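[Meeting: bench + compute handoff]

Bench side (C.D.) handed over the final construct sequence. Compute side (W.E.) agreed to return the predicted structure before the next meeting so the bench team could plan truncations. Sequence as handed over:
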Amino acid sequence: RTTAGSRMLADFIAPYNATVVNRINTQGMVMLGKTNMDEFAMGSSNENSYFGPVTNPWGQALVPGGSSGGSAAAVAAGITPAATGTDTGGSIRQPASLCGITGLKPTYGRVSRYGMIAFASSLDQAGPMTHDAIDAAILLAAMAGFDERDSTSADREDAWMADALQGKLSRPAGLKIGLPRQYFDHANESAAPLDGVRRCLEAQGHSCVDIDLPHTDAAIPAYYVIAGAEASTNLSRYDGVRFGHRSDESESLEDLYQRSRSEGFGAEVKRRILTGTYALSVGYYDAYYLKAQKIRRLIANDFTQAFTKVDVLLAPTTLGGAFAQGSLTKDPVAMYQQDKFTVPVSLAGLPALSMPCGFVANLPVGAQLIGPAFREDLILGLADAYQAETDWHQTHPEQIV
C-alpha cells in the first residue's frame, strides 16, 4: 500500500513504481517496505499520520521529527542501513537531526519527482537518509538522474556521481565556510555543538566567516503560503470519485465530495488546504501568494549573494533535540517554527545536508551544510571529512536492532 499516512489513501496500491524506486531496484538494492509519515508530508513531528504517531528510538515519548520521521526512525534504530525520504521544507533534514542520522536534501531537480505523491510541487524533493555521508552519496547516485517524465528534472551529467555510486568522495580543501548570523542568533540549544563543528573544520584547514542572509525571518510565513497554495491544488484530486476514500453516507454528488474529504483528510491537511485556498482566492492572490513568491526570490538572492563570498554555509538544522509527543500539537505556529532553519534552503532550491554533531540533554542534534546548486559533492565531501574525525554518526540509541 502507498498511503501517504492518510485515511484518504488507506487502501491504495500504486499501479506503478516511482522513478526513484525503479532506479534503486536497478542498482540491486533490496526494498524492505514503506514507513509511516506525517499525512501527505504535512508536519514536523510525525504525529499527523492516520495510522498513529512514529516514536523516536532515542526515547519512546519523543517525536522523531517529520514528515519523513518513519524513515529516520528506521535508520536510527538499525532496522535498515538506509531509507528514502522527501523534503519539502525540511522533512529529511529535521528528522535526521532529531534521530541522529545523516540526511540529504538534493538540489531541486536533481532527483525525479515522477511517482511521488505531490505536496508542494515547486518544493518537493526526494533524498537519502543514512548513517553517514558515504552511504548518502551512494544512495543519491543511485536515485539521481534526468527523467523525461518529470518536467522539472535537471538534464545534467556530473562526473563525481559515478565515483559516489562506488562510495568514493573527494574531500574538499581550504574552503571558506559562511556562518549565517540570522541562524546562530536563534540557535539556542544547538549553538554549543555547532561550535564544535566549526573548530573541527577549521582544524582541517577551512576558514569560517560570518555572513548575512537578511530575509531569513520571512521564510516561514512565505513558505506556508506557497506550500499551502500548492497543496490545495494538488489535493483537489482526492474527491472520493476517481480514487481515495469514499464516504458511504452521501446523499448527493456534492455531499459525496464534502463527506469524503472531511472523513479522508486529517486536521493538519485541512488546515493547509484552507490556508492555501484562501491565499489563491480572488482578492487575496496578490496580497498573499504573489507577495510570498516575491519573498522567495529575495531569499534565493540572499543565498546567491552569499555564495559569491563563501563556498558553503554551516548552520544548525534544528532549534534543539527531539521534543515530547503532544507538546506542540495544540500550537501550530510553534510547530511551524521547528522548520525555521530548513525552510529557507527549500525555497531557494539548494542542496543541504544534516549530519550528527553532538548531544543536547542526551539527545542528538545535527549541523546543516548548505551548498550552491548541484554541488552536493561539496557538502557530502565536507561531511565525510568531518565524520572521519568524529564519531557522532556512529552513536546509536540503546534499543538499536
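W.E. noted at the follow-up: The CA atoms of residues 36 and 70 lie 5 Å apart. C.D. will use this when planning the next construct.
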